[in-house]
Amino acid sequence: EGSGRTNGVTGPPAVSPTNTGTAPPVGLATGRETNFKAAESGACRADNCKLPDCFCAGTSIPGGLTREQTPQFIMLTFDDYLSETIWTGLIDDLIHKTTARDATGCGPRLTFYLQNDLTDYYLADNAYAAGSEIAIHTIDHRNPSAFSADEWAKTMYGSVKYTAAATSIPEGAMVGGRAPWLIYSDNMLAGDYKGGFLYDSSIVERHDSLRPHNSYVDMTTKVGQWLWPYTLDFGIQQIVS
């Protein structure tokens, strides 16, 4: 039970969003420049983008593996605020009550992309202590469409400061983020870079997979045409200029 936690208190601690300090110029883990713009058609090729540092988007299984040889990774993520109702109705079953185990004997863990407004920090601490990851979903879940890179950096890094002040979770453990309603942009990624984040989880696999009028992905859309993970050296390859 970390000394920094405000037991049973919801909402951000007493830290002003205009006084969060300057985001550290940590940059991406690789230190490489990343192109946050739309990808130029055909710019990323096997001859100029090679593993382990670079990988182009594509629908073919990486490494020439067959479908049977390809390992399967199942990622469990949650975003928005964490409350007692959500915990007892969903999270507790996934983390503490399940008997499911992977090949190494480990149970499931989640990544929580948390907004500060309304989040119960006691539960956030419990989730982190149980081995799950705590990541950032902005301070108050405002529509970020018009955010500048500096505004993105302030709301993302400010959320890190809020969460660290209210829990026992160190700032350095919160290195990823997700945009509200999956509204990502060049400014968002540039702001993440300025804020020292190592990854983002906002880019959807296919724009035409989003259901009309909301940000839910229709998993049945164009099965077999979804992209494998790739690096951003040549831009966001779901958006091609």
Average of the residue pLDDT scores:
76
SSE topology string? EEHEHEHEHEE
As a percent range, the share of strand residues is 5-15%
Number of helices, where a helix is a run of at least 4 consecutive DSSP H or I residues: 4
E-strand count = 7
Structural class: alpha/beta
Question: How many strands, which pairing sense, and closed or not: the largest β-sheet?
Answer: 3 strands, parallel
- At the fold tier of CATH, the topology name is TIM Barrel
Helix content: 10-25%
Strand order of the largest sheet: 2-3-4
Please name the CATH architecture: Alpha-Beta Barrel
Overview of the structural elements:
- The chain is an alpha/beta fold.
- It has a single domain (18-56, 72-240), classed as TIM Barrel, CATH 3.20.20.
- 21% of the residues lie in helices and 10% in strands.
- The protein is built from four helices and seven strands; from the N terminus they run ββαβαβαβαββ.
- The protein has helices at residues 84-97, 121-129, 149-166, 186-194, and strands at residues 38-39, 77-80, 111-114, 133-136, 176-177, 199-200, 236-240.
- The strands form three sheets. A three-stranded parallel sheet has the order 2-3-4. A two-stranded parallel sheet has the order 1-7.
- Helix 4 (186-194) links the parallel strand 5 (176-177) and strand 6 (199-200).
- Helix 3 packs across helix 4.
- The longest helix is centred in the middle third of the chain and has 18 residues, at 149-166.
- The model is unreliable at 1-34 (pLDDT under 50).
